[in-house]
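Is iron/sulfur cluster placement plausible here? Inputs below.
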Amino acid sequence: MVNAQTKQNESTTDTIEEKLYVNRFCPDTESHIKVNPTFCNLCSGKECTKFCPANVFSWCQLNDRIIIGYENCLECGACNSGCPFEAIDYLHPTPPHGIL
Ligand code: SF4
Ligand code: SF4
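Reply from A.M.:
I modeled the complex. Tokens:
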């Protein structure tokens, strides 16, 4: 029989990936996150690829731009303040879309 302490220990040993896996999403057909490419191209640190907890942003060297996997967004809002060039325009997804 699993007691409460065992359950608590199990939950604290879950990896971030395992915890993210339990989220359920209803993605919109259009992204609720937009990036201004003019400002974005000035950014050498690509900070959004580091601070976003859901790995929504990835840098595409081939096309020299940020790719946005908005479907996985956790709606934490960090990209509004985390982008050093304020190049990210974030709005919460329109209900019923987003995290369920
Ligand atoms: S942090 Fe902002 S400016 Fe830098 S790569 Fe990401 S979106 Fe572009
Ligand atoms: S709101 Fe949070 S999870 Fe969504 S893209 Fe911005 S930093 Fe990533």
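Short version: The beta strands are 25-26, 33-35, 57-60, 65-68, 88-90, 98-99.
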